[in-house]
Amino acid sequence: MRDQPTNEAALDALFAALECSPRALLMLDYDGTLAPFRNDPADAVPYPGVTELLDSIMQGARTRVVLISGRRAMDVLGLLKTHVRPEVWGCHGWERLEPSGTLSIQPAPPLALEALIAASGVADCALRLGARLERKPSSLALHWRGLAEERAREVRTMVEAKWARLCERAPLALLEFDGGLELRASGRSKAHAVLTALAETGFDSPAAFLGDDITDEDAFVALDGRALSVLVRTERRPSAATVWLRPPEQLLLFLRRWERARAQRPASEGHAS
Predict the structure, then answer these.
(1) What residue ranges define each of the domains in the chain, with the CATH number in brackets?
(2) What is the pTM of this model?
């Protein structure tokens, strides 16, 4: 990770490529990237200006926009509220929602599902302390954001070791995120989502993935040398990302530059749409 808030050379190279390429791919995490974290996830609306910029980018019809989130795919759409529907990969790649509205869910292995049921029972004691358990088709997320620091540590201690033991007998991975722990079926991840989207668009297409959390690092690593990886975060942390942007100002500037670059129509395209 560079010491400066931005890596201007990498950004300039991306936007120059965007001006002359017939195709482009913009991949974005949601929570912490496009929207600030909130104690109640239903309150996590995008930073002012984000929705309008994404709409403008998608209306230009020269960028494929893909949201890649740990949330349910439909939940992301409900919060983003763009007029043009993007593609959304939810639940860390286990769900895929097409712009047409077609939703496909990849089933998790039966052994993983059985272990997740057991893990739900393990978390009951933490819920009595004020934690929140989010149940998704292929994972469980235990949230302690908003709790006092001592109470959050107590919640983590109650659950972490027991969930870790479940990973020893089932195809599960235990991952930390900003404000909680997630127990997730192995086999899909944000890395799978970004590489699938990039392969479908074309590995020669200029592309970027913007994320903020530890759960975005596998995508950053997978995209090394293939697309620009951008850490969107108020404070810098160690990361495999090439560029660091502070939200919301630098995030909005990035999206505006993307919008302007894609408005430059290559001469080879003529008047094609």
Answers:
(1) 8-106+188-262 (3.40.50.1000), 110-185 (3.30.70)
(2) 0.89
